[in-house]
Amino acid sequence: AQSVAQPEDQVNVAEGNPLTVKCTYSVSGNPYLFWYVQYPNRGLQFLLKYITGDNLVKGSYGFEAEFNKSQTSFHLKKPSALVSDSALYFCAVREVHGSSNTGKLIFGQGTTLQVKP
Amino acid sequence: EAGVAQSPRYKIIEKRQSVAFWCNPISGHATLYWYQQILGQGPKLLIQFQNNGVVDDSQLPKDRFSAERLKGVDSTLKIQPAKLEDSAVYLCASSLAGQGGPPLHFGNGTRLTVT
To answer: How many Å apart are CA A47 and CA A53, to the nearest integer?
Structure first.
């Protein structure tokens, strides 16, 4: 069965410093990988995804993520953190079944990012 | 484009009562999802529709939860009777049909408190 792990409940960084939010996954086939962000009392917002191709994918708000197949990881990164980046971040994986998109999207437990001025 | 609409935003009920949530997806999105997000946890898929057919309901507690998507557009999720452990945020999401990658667009959720 597919699964996602976010090993850190919280990540603290100073504004202007680089940030990394970690994610590892487990699937039996090829993964589709996603990052979402959630602000208080709001739904999740899509940040970026990896489907195939270049291992470094770029997304919204200056975020990027690196797919590493050998380490089964998909860490979220940003070169310079902003206070407004403070939020709850979720990694998610969908196991690909043929040519359909009907594979279940499984979310990690979430990591709270706190960026301090 | 208009986002995913959910109502109500908040609901407080007593255990053993019933409750219903409504979702209107983004126009043209064939796939609709209901997720349950318990405080401190990631969203858990309850049910996934493709148009008006159920694709996955393996984690839906069918003895008390039901969902329908009439005419392949709006959807309702019902709980009857509610238990204390059903307290959570219920998120509706929709996506285009397509191979694996279309991102999900989420509504703001309904926060359910069961007392």
So the answer is: 18
Q: Is residue A83 a contact partner of residue A14, using CB atoms and an 8 Å limit?
A: no
- Whether the pLDDT of residue A70 is over 60: the answer is yes
For domain A3-116, which CATH number applies: 3.20.20.210, 2.60.40.420, 2.60.40.10, 2.40.160.60?
A: 2.60.40.10
Look at A104 and B4 and tell me if their CB atoms are within 8 Å: no
Work out whether the CA dihedral B39, B45, B47, B51 comes out positive or negative. positive
Distance to chain A for B41, nearest Cα, Å? 5
The encoded tokens of residue A12 equal 């603290």
Identify residue A22 by its one-letter amino acid code: K
**Distance (Å, whole) CA B67 – CA B48:** 10
> Which residues in chain A have their CB less than 8 angstroms from residue B35's CB?
107
A25 with B77: CB under 8 angstroms? Answer: no
Give residue-wise pLDDT tens across range B50-89: 988 998 999 999 999 999 998 889 999 999 999 999 999 9
B25 touches chain A (CB under 8 A): no
Distance in angstroms (rounded) separating the CA atoms of residues A76 and A8: 12
Residue given tokens 């086939």 in the structure block: A29
Return the residue of A nearest to B5 by Cα.
A43
Provide the residue ranges of all domains of chain A, joining segments of one domain with +: 3-116
Ordered structural domains, chain B, with CATH: 5-114 (2.60.40.10)
pLDDT digits (tens, 9 = 90+) for A72-114: 999 999 999 999 999 999 999 987 665 555 567 899 999 999 9
